[in-house]
Write a structure and sequence with these properties.
Elements lengths: L5 H12 L2 H12 L2 H5 L2 H4 L8 E2 L14 H18 L8 H22 L8 H6 L9 H11 L11 H4 L2 H23 L3 H23 L6 E6 L5 E7 L1 H9 L6 E5 L8 E6 L9 E5 L2 H13 L4 E5 L5 E2 L4 E2 L6 H4 L9 H6 L7 E10 L5 E7 L11 E5 H7 E7 L5 H6 L5 E4 L5
Parallel strand pairs: 4-6, 5-14, 9-12
Antiparallel strand pairs: 1-10, 2-3, 4-13, 5-6, 7-10, 7-13, 8-9, 10-11, 11-12
Helix pairs in contact: 6-10, 6-11, 10-11
């Protein structure tokens, strides 16, 4: 074993003291936010402007202090159908409604897993996953399951609360409760009391339901929907249910979409199933893993057809939130810290947990280079109008290739070969393998 010796430390100190640029950078970093200094505006300038292909959207949403980006992205796609159908200038769906049932389903799933896997080692990987508790995160397929089961409703029928927009403390307390409940259920199963464990589980989920009603409000079973269109015409419909509202005013066939993955550390042209990452009991996540170029071609097809795209990326990489830019050439953190190089392949970053999909938004535009290849992408975010250019962001093709990991595409745009790929035997991945 080799430790840091005094001689080695002294050589580092001498090299640092003799580097004039280090003193300048140190002085700047002492008084200024690193994000402000990392931004390179002249590199970001070419990413701005109009895009050859743009999908019209109606307004920017704000997830506030919550991790519900994936849910907001689905709602932002669906709301466009309502707005188009009713000739509305703006419209928003209730994210709180899906938030309520997402938390309830996740809690129920974890308690169900506590019973199912009670005899597995408490300190094994399965239980480590269970004990992480409920969080805000999710993916397209989880939102699809929620919408299919519970429907959707306008935001004014079930508006946000402070707790739905600031979820940390609520989740902390719920997860403390879940840990206690999971211990009780596991002990009951180990004692051979399966029936009692299942009965107690239903009581436990009911307790969480009550807490959610207090924090988020009681979701209405029926509601009235009123609107005034761009021409001043008034409309109203009473006694709608969330499912009847979805069927009449949205009507999107969610089964017509396929999550397309781009993770080169996994087999390409292959379906992948993740076990244990869903929010509902008995459900698994599914995606088709394709090469980068094929995923981009599908994105361009869908945008040209006038349809926005749900996608997931690593928003932490080369980001300037204020400017609304994701681009390795426009956000230079390594240059601020001595010019080090942390370049890795996309596969390497995934394998070594240096990067992963942490944020979902919708693609609404693409611009091309002189050869007709994508050069920049327009993004509608859910961080409010204060971020980016009134809520819209841009990313470079360089960023897209390296840090975009999933895009949800309608089946009709898949090639014949890609359609056939869907029928191949899938690779099964346990939830903890993606952590």
């Amino acid at each position: 074993m080799n430790g840091i010796t005094d001689e080695i430390l002294a050589s580092w100190e001498q090299n640092t003291k003799s580097a004039r640029e280090d003193k300048v950078l140190s002085a700047a970093l002492a008084k200024t936010d690193m994000g402000e200094l990392a931004y390179v505006p002249e590199s970001a300038a070419p990413l701005r402007g109009a895009f050859e292909v743009e999908v019209k959207t109606r307004g920017i949403t704000a997830q506030k202090k919550s991790g519900r980006c994936w849910m907001f992205a689905v709602c932002n796609i669906c709301r466009e159908l309502v707005a188009e159908k009713l000739n509305l200038e703006s419209f928003e769906l209730s994210q709180n409604y899906l938030t309520f049932y997402d938390k309830l389903e996740k809690a129920n799933n974890l308690l169900d897993m506590a019973i199912t896997y009670a005899k597995e080692p408490l300190h094994g990987q399965r239980w480590m996953q269970i004990l992480k508790g409920v969080d805000d995160g999710g993916f397209w397929s989880q939102a699809v399951d929620l919408v299919k089961k519970y429907g959707m409703m306008p935001k004014n029928a079930f508006p946000e609360t402070y707790q739905s927009e600031h979820t940390d403390l609520f989740l902390r307390e719920i997860n403390r409760l879940l840990a206690k409940d999971e211990q009780i259920l596991r002990d009951l199963v180990l004692e051979g009391k399966w029936e009692e464990a299942n009965a107690r589980k239903d009581e436990m989920v009911g307790e969480i339901y009550r807490a959610e009603c207090i924090a988020f409000g009681v979701p209405p079973k029926t509601f009235s929907f009123t609107w005034r269109d761009k021409d001043g015409n008034y409309g109203e419909e009473r006694d709608l249910t969330p499912k009847s509202f979805y069927e009449k005013y949205i009507g999107l066939d969610l089964d017509a979409y396929v999550p397309i993955l781009q993770e080169p550390n996994k087999a390409l042209h292959t379906p992948i199933i993740w076990h244990g990452m869903e929010n509902m009991v008995g459900r698994d996540m599914f995606a088709l893993n394709l090469p980068q170029e094929e995923m981009e071609e599908l994105c361009v097809k869908q945008l040209r057809a006038g349809q926005a795209i749900w996608f997931a990326c690593d928003s932490r990489a080369f980001e300037d939130r204020k400017a609304g830019v994701w681009d390795p050439d426009s956000v230079d953190y390594p240059g601020l810290l001595g010019g080090f190089d942390y370049t890795m392949t996309k596969a390497g970053r995934l394998d070594y947990r240096q990067s992963m999909a942490v944020h979902a938004m919708i693609l609404v535009g693409v611009g091309f280079d002189e050869n007709g290849r994508p050069a920049r992408w327009k993004i509608e975010n859910s961080w409010g109008e204060e971020a980016g250019e009134k809520g819209y962001f841009v990313c470079s093709e360089k960023y897209f290739q390296e840090y975009v990991y999933e895009a949800v595409i309608r089946r009709e745009y898949l090639t014949k070969e890609q359609q056939e790929d869907l029928g191949k035997k899938p690779i099964r991945i346990e939830s903890w393998e993606e952590e």
